[in-house]
Amino acid sequence: MKGPSGFAALACDEMLVHTSDIAAGLGTSFDPPREVCARVLARLFPWAPPDKDSWEALRWANGRGPLGERPRLSPNWVSHPAPLDEWDGLDPNVPS
After folding, report:
1. What is the domain extent for residue 20?
2. Three-state secondary structure of 22-58
3. Distance CA 90, CA 96 (A)
4. What's the chain's average pLDDT?
5. Does residue 75 fall inside a structural domain?
6. Mapping DSSP to helix (H, G, I), strand (E, B) and coil, where does residue 85 land?
7. Is the residue at 86 inside a domain?
8. Per 3-state DSSP, what percentage of the chain is helix, strand, and coil (rounded to 5)?
9. Entry pTM
């Protein structure tokens, strides 16, 4: 179940990532505000590394490419729009 902040974060995530996709398709760049990226990343992908550039980490969390030594995520990557207190502390993209 999505909480209000998760729903808002999903909308921001979609706008950021797909604006980047569109810009790339048009042969131009997109450089979003890092604070916005950091907030979306922390809300939807709490397992993402906090010590990386927030835009690059958000792109990685959305399966858009590798992040340093971390490989690109599979097409089945997931986010966590449910309330953060419902997160079990694990990265759901890592097989258990």
Report:
1. 4-64
2. HHHHCCCCCCCCHHHHHHHHHHHCCCCCCCCCHHHHH
3. 9
4. 94
5. no
6. helix
7. no
8. 45, 0, 50
9. 0.92
